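Section: Multi-chain targets

For targets with more than one molecule, the full set of components is provided together so that the structure can be written out for the assembly as a whole rather than chain by chain. Components appear in the order listed by the source. The example entry contains two components.
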Amino acid sequence: MSTTPAGPRPKFLTIGRIGMYCFILVCAIFFLMPLYVMVITSLKDMDEIRAANILNLPKELSFYSWPKAWSQACTGFVCEGLKPGFINSIKITVPSVIVSVGLSAINGYALAFWRFKGAYFFFGLCMFGAFIPYQVMVYPLLKIEDALGIYSTLPGIILVHTIFGMPILTLIFRNFYVSLPIDLFKAARIDGGNFIKIFLYVIIPMSAPITIVAVILQVTGIWNDFLLGLVFAGRDNQPMTVQLNNIVQVDYGVAEYNVDMSATILTSLVPLFVYFISGRWFVRGIAAGAIKG
Amino acid sequence: MSMKNSVEVKNISFSYGKTEILNDLSIDIKEGEFMVLLGPSGCGKTTLLNCIAGLLDLTDGQIWIEDDNVTWKEPKDRHIGMVFQSYALYPSMTVEKNLSFGLRMMGTAKDLINEKINKAANLLQINELLKRKPSQLSGGQRQRVAIGRALVRDAKVFLFDEPLSNLDAKLRAELRYEIKKLHRDLSNTMIYVTHDQIEAMTLADRISVMKDGLIQQLDTPKQIYNKPANLFVAGFIGSPSMNFLNANYDKSNKKIIVGNKQIVISKYENINNLMNDQQVVFGIRPENINIEKNENSIQCKVELVEPMGADTLVWTSIENNPISIRLEGSSNFNLNDEINISFDINKSSIFDSKSEERI
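Its structure, encoded as tokens over all components, is:
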């Protein structure tokens, strides 16, 4: 009897595998094509865009569309480019993310560990809230904010993003915390922790993966939002997406496709960047929160 | 051990929604006593421990610890320390921070904290581990740290929730020994939940055997082993478990009749409580069966032999009821050997078939 395996090792590259790679390749091309077109179009001048095929590489690189999109393109009546929108988007996103993630973490913690009376009902409400389409609530919320006097203000739009983010974030945090061993919480209670102390010293240090997921979801969600920004932010606080729309949707003059493309890429840079640096964490955190729940 | 009660559980009830786990349960635990709550899973022993710790709110009743009604007090105000099956060490803190967490929460002075940590660390031999994170410890080390965390709090009562169940057999025996030593040295009141009868027998001053939220028997390990109060306790305690024979009592001859076989039980302590023709269950432990031929022995065949090192277990049967006999490890029997067995009647237990209570 020989102790070596009988026969050669099975071939790695089978027909099925080749087929799979072809499929993956086609998918990659399909999804990367728009990005390719955007990048090369932004690097052409208008004459070349009009003259040549959309897929052709630029004959000579022209970068003028980028600074123009950033600081000179006209958004409606003002011609300051996307820069003010970028600053507005940051002013909206940062506080909205901090407030909604912070509150949702506390909510999730309370739902998971301090089973108060009616906790399940509240849990059901969150579930319900997470699946209601935004549009249904836009008008009532507008009236409420108007009555509160914060309609068309920065706090107004921050409040709206916080409200819409909280149901799903609360569920995510709650599911993550439920998967933590309950004995930890019991031990902390015996060790003298109260609601706040246990949250601060025991729960938060363990929350990194799920917090990263929540932050990614919120940053990309709020940054990419168009509808709420358009309705609630007011003229002075228009986020980047709304200004991008104003650049692209010209009613008069010529459509500058290269500027449009530059502006679009600039607008999507933040979410792209967030995904690139945190993709690993994102997958890990989603899995951690999803396994038990 | 003094006569003073350390923990008094008075008529407590607890239910999850409509499911009643504990109903009107009372138990007194003396100062310095090692009380083991023993029972199969789902018997309510962990629920009872959590109620004592204040981690679950009672539906009814009171809990007193050290002459203080703590029924509605927070866990931290009950003078207790608790050790969990899953260790429950805070994963983001070092061993040192884990030990000091409770003291820091109470705002204890730094010097005092260090002093207490050193004392506990010496006692449990975890000095070298103080700077490590729980993830860098083995199971046994983790449980030592968890015990240390209860120690530094100067708890009057220690609660253990199946602390050794996650460890392998060798470590379990090692830590069991250390817990016993700890109790000897500290003489705190300890309440210990387990489903492992060896732990219960070795550690306990008294064992409370539980089933379906009721205390079946509360007594010393010896008494519980030798004089089980009912059929459940008799079957639950002891490994290999007690042999049972369904029988009828013949009062005039002081015999019980099992099918075609008869066993004289005139030496049974409470024989006068038996009535003629009463349906009973005769219980006898494997070590109380002897292989010897006398006027009262029963002939049977060896059906299986299990050598266990120190002892050998010989299996036979009487009227199709399997019977195990514990013999010396050196004894030598073969399959189908004819043997004569006799019972130590004064060490047997006889239960009423209907009520399942000991007679």
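Residues 169-186 of chain B form the longest helix (18 residues).
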